[in-house]
Specification:
Layout (H helix, E strand, L loop, with lengths): L5 H15 L1 H15 L6 H13 L4 H12 L9 H16 L15 E6 L6 H14 L4 E4 L6 H14 L3 E2 L7 H14 L4 E4 L8 H18 L6 E7 L5 H13 L3 E5 L9 H9 L3 E5 L7 E3 L2 H9 L4
Parallel strand pairs: 1-4, 1-5, 2-3, 2-4, 5-6, 6-7
Antiparallel strand pairs: 7-8
Length: 315
């Protein structure tokens, strides 16, 4: 009997998600439980709840809204930690629901070009590998372009993912021109009638102007082959950087016209709330989130699951 029913796999993903977000939900839950057991709800307690949410990186607007919602009709009454968690989950879901959007591959584009951007260490190359595995499993023909020509390790890593997913990889020598590599890979993918081309890019932010210029050039050059490319620009963000993620979105969105976000390493941080702050500020679609190293640890983003996991509500 097949054990991988949709309910079963959804449950195992929920378990991975809630345990991945445990550090964030514990930091919120423990602090809230500590506050509500001591006294009845008053203005000072609401300020303390707001501080707890700010420390989890939910952002000032969301933290203030959640605290205000907790206060509605509850002044001078005892309140349970579970009540507060329910309000946190409901308010966070309201922020996230509009941005929880699937990455749709336009079948009329051959290949559908996905440019993947982000700073070094954000999990960019691994995310490309996981996406290649996902698209291949869906029966799509995928090509990978090792456009992070700055790092030999990134080129090697992509080749490994290419072997794993049986996807061709276009790579040059370390230090070669990433724009011409993007041009060649798009030409080859077009000729081969492939379905998806995933393009890796460099992510060194030491010299932001140079990096951004390189990204602009990659986009410009690809448009010589297909004037509609790239069809999606995914920014991969590492959740552990907290507030720094906001400035990364700002910089990459301005240069590369980011169309959607992937957030990784949510299992390694107590600052998972940063995704909520990003949704509130930029309203960019969030396509995938990652809570571990395995292929199955990258999954489509769903607002309700994330909101409940961050609030520490058990499924």
């Amino acid at each position: 009997m097949n054990d991988t029913t949709p309910e079963k796999s959804k449950m195992s993903w929920w378990r991975r998600l809630s345990s991945g977000l445990k550090r964030t939900s514990s930091s919120i839950g423990a602090a809230v439980a500590d506050l509500v057991t001591k006294r009845k709800l008053d203005r000072a307690m609401l300020e303390d709840i707001e501080d707890v949410l700010l420390r989890a990186d939910l952002g000032t607007e969301v933290a203030a809204r959640v605290a205000a919602s907790v206060g509605v009709g509850r002044y001078d009454k005892s309140i349970s930690a579970d009540e507060v968690k329910s309000v946190v989950a409901a308010e966070v879901e309201k922020v996230l629901a509009p941005v929880a959007r699937s990455l749709v591959i336009d079948e009329t584009r051959k290949p559908f070009v996905i440019l993947v951007v982000g700073v070094n260490g954000s999990g960019k190359t691994t995310t490309i590998g996981k996406l290649a595995a996902k698209f291949s499993a869906e029966g799509r023909k995928v090509m990978l372009a090792a456009g992070d020509t700055f790092r030999a390790a990134a080129i090697e890593q992509l080749k490994v993912w290419g072997e794993r997913t049986k996807s061709p990889v276009i790579a040059g020598a370390q230090g070669s021109d990433s724009a011409s590599l993007a041009f060649n890979s798009l030409s080859a993918a077009k000729e081969g009638r492939l379905d998806v081309l995933l393009v890796d890019t460099a992510g060194r932010l030491q010299n932001k102007a140079e990096l951004m210029k390189e990204l602009e050039k990659i986009v410009r050059v690809m448009r010589k082959v297909d004037d509609t490319a790239p069809h999606a620009v995914l920014l991969v963000l590492d959740a552990t950087v907290g507030q720094n993620a906001l400035s990364q979105v700002e910089a990459f969105h301005r240069t590369a016209g980011v169309t959607g976000l992937v957030m990784t390493k949510l299992d390694g941080t107590a600052r998972g709330g940063i995704l909520v702050a990003l949704a509130e500020k930029y309203r960019l679609p969030v396509h995938f989130i990652g809570v571990g190293e395995g292929v199955e640890d990258l999954a489509p983003f769903t607002a309700r699951d994330f909101a409940q996991a961050i609030a520490g509500i058990e499924a």
